[in-house]
Amino acid sequence: MINSPIEKIKESLSISDVISSYIKIDPVGSNFKAKCPFHNEKTPSFFISPARGTYYCFGCGAKGDMINFVQEFEGLDFIGALKILASRAGVDISYESKDIKDERERLYRIMEDAVLFFEKNLTLYPEARNYLENRGLKNETINDFRIGYARNEWRLLSDFLRQKGYTEVEIEKAGLGKKSEKVNTKGQSIFYDRFRSRIMFPIFDSSGRTIAFSGRIFPEVSTKDDENAPAKYLNSPDTVLFNKSNVLYGIDKAKGEIRRLDYTIMVEGQMDLILSHQIGCKNTVALSGTGFSENLSSKENIVNNFGIIKRLSNNIMFAFDSDKAGIKASDRASHIAMSLGMDVKIVKIPEEKDPADYIKINGDEWKRLIKEAKTAIEFYLDLFVDTITDRRQLLKTIKEQVLSYLVVLNGNMEKAHFVKIIANKLNMSEDIIWGDIRNLEDTNQIKSSIVNIETEDSPQFKRKDNVERKIIGIMLWQGSKADQQLQKEDIENRIISIGGGEYLEKLVNWAEPIAKELAFEAEIFYEGSSNLKDDLDELYLNLEEDYLKIELELSMELLAKTEKGEDLEKTTKVLSKCQEISKKIQDIKNKRFK
User: Fold this and answer.
1) 580 in Cβ contact with 556 (< 8 Å)
2) How far is residue 210 from each of residues 110, 129, 241, 286, 305, measured CA to CA in Å?
3) What SS3 state is found at 320?
4) CA angle at residue 185 from 179 to 187, to 5 degrees?
5) What angle in degrees, to the nearest 10, is found between the helix axes of 324-339 and 376-387?
6) Rg of the Cα trace of the chain?
């Protein structure tokens, strides 16, 4: 009998059907193969086993079941991926008795009710709608992006939500209301709406659920005291649903076009994005209400903004404002993206305009600018050559701000391509430029301006994090049950055998703040499974493989250093260790798909 919602989903859906709805797959005997969507490759090394219900990439080591795949590909959390698959399979995954699920679902409902409230307000406040139309938005666009309005009232939304049955605690947790430091005559804290007198732009997650808002002040407020003037834009605070580093405005509408066109256009503001979509450039996302992150995922293993984009396409264009602040933001974003291995271009917008104003004047011209976007290196090279007249200052600026990009690049062939371009542009010897690049690499002068990708941000570490999450979740879930299938002590001992006692302690400390969530994920994932021990053994195997890959990565770095030092004896020992680790990894791989 099938008890678990996960088993019901897997009974209804084939992993090959799920994955083939995202990427092209080809049959190979009883299995399927494809080009891995999680790293760039020319020869397919991504294999799908319908019998096991799993996938595995022999190139980058990505692995898991259909839920893992949707999580990774869509950039969703466990519940988000589960909801997508449950909807496809027609399976009810209502777990109202679970604290975490109940809280999240309540917050999602609050946010949806708030969207409806703000949308209705917009119809009652024609001045706000006229402003949007004057900015170039069509009615269908306004409706499609669910833009609304928060009236200049202190408790209007809060009163509405309380009438719907929500508490002040829930309203505050959703980021829609807050308590004042002042108290009323009864000594009670005064509760008021966070958003007032603002045009409201809902921020959606990858699956289209409202998780936050960004509100633009309207009408404009003039005051003699600039310090006390309200912010032009006010964004939701971080909540259970929203973390500004893990979200991009418009990703729910853009992800399909990003996959199809194989590149992303990133802008800064809501209006930039909405007008870009309105003229057909629907592969556009925005940072509005969100922020940059310098890694692909958070410490909690949640995929962030650059991580989401990179999994959809490795190509990105930054189309920020053409003023000094926009150019500076493009520079920082380009360094981060290139450090993460992405191919970066920058769109040159003339006359210090922002994309929204430019698109409103001439949408076709905007599309031409997109086509003519230059690589970040060529963009800044041309910018400095065109604007800096003093030769000495020009060379100094290019060394500090353009060559830093070349240090980030992987591979001498790509570096050589740009060195030639720079040398021709400056009428200078390539050898001189190569010399400056080596000096930058040796002295690490650009460390503060580029992303410092530590070992723990490598793909092997991130995949390991996902496996750890499942193992610890099972341990916490089983430890809380009266009728345990698995003993907590046995799981702890196995973890110690892989990474040692300090490793187990580190995992336990990491899991403590989110213990309920981890246990819930494990329960919903594995409840009713008749092969829980086999599932856990597979996770142990995955963890061991990822650890070996990390050990190999570190050993290869040590090998490179010993070879430079010409210490033959030490080099031989390290080489032998690398070969031994490689053999262990291959032995684990050979156990798969037999």
Assistant:
1) no
2) 9, 21, 9, 16, 16
3) coil
4) 55
5) 150
6) 27
Contacts of 44 (CB under 8 A, 6+ apart): 26, 33, 34, 35, 36
The pLDDT tens digits along the chain (594 residues) read: 445 677 788 888 899 989 988 888 988 888 898 888 877 677 788 888 888 788 888 777 788 889 989 888 876 777 778 888 888 888 876 544 455 567 888 899 999 999 999 999 999 999 999 999 999 999 999 999 999 999 999 999 999 999 999 999 999 999 999 988 776 666 667 899 999 999 999 999 877 889 999 999 998 765 555 566 678 889 999 898 888 777 889 988 998 888 788 899 999 989 999 999 999 999 999 986 555 555 544 444 344 567 778 777 889 999 998 888 888 888 888 888 887 778 999 999 987 778 999 999 888 899 999 999 999 999 999 999 999 999 999 999 998 889 988 887 866 788 899 999 999 999 999 899 998 888 877 654 433 333 333 333 444 444 556 788 888 888 988 887 777 788 888 888 988 888 888 888 888 888 888 787 777 667 766 766 667 888 888 888 888 888 788 888 888 878 777 776 666 778 888 888 888 888 888 887 776 555
- The side-by-side arrangement of strands in the sheet containing 198-204 is 148-150, 198-204, 210-217, 233-235
Q: Indicate the residue type of 505.
A: E
Sign of the dihedral through C-alpha 282, 287, 290, 295: positive
Tokens of 19: 């994955």
Q: Which amino acid is located at 515 in the chain?
A: A
End-to-end CA distance of the chain: 28
The answer to whether the 5-89 and 99-241 domains have the same CATH topology is no
List the structure tokens of 195.
């958003």
Number of continuous H segments (helices) and E segments (strands) in the chain: 26, 16
Question: How big is the chain, counted in residues?
Answer: 594
Q: Which of 274, 254, 270, 271 is nearest to 262 (CA)?
A: 254
Report H helices in 409-500: 412-426, 430-443, 459-479, 488-499
Alpha carbon distances (Å) from 548 to 492, 511, 559, 581, 586: 19, 23, 16, 6, 10
Instruction: Indicate the domain borders of the chain.
Output: 5-89, 99-241, 455-590
CATH number at 5-89:
3.90.580.10
Measured at the CA of 305, the angle between CA 299 and CA 309, to 5 degrees, comes to: 125
Pairing of strands 233-235, 210-217: antiparallel
Between CA 250 and CA 274 the distance in angstroms is 8
Q: Are strands 315-318 and 46-49 parallel, antiparallel or unpaired?
A: unpaired
Asked if 150 and 128 touch (Cβ cutoff 8 Å), the reply is no
> Strand 374-375 to strand 343-346: parallel, antiparallel, or no bridges (unpaired)?
antiparallel
CATH hierarchy code of domain 99-241 = 3.90.980.10
Specify burial of residue 10 (Cβ count, 10 A radius: 0-12, 13-18, 19+): buried
Which residues face 317 on adjacent strands?
265, 345
Structure tokens at 554: 């570190």
Q: What angle in degrees, to the nearest 10, is found between the helix axes of 501-511 and 459-479?
A: 80
d(CA 198, CA 63): 45
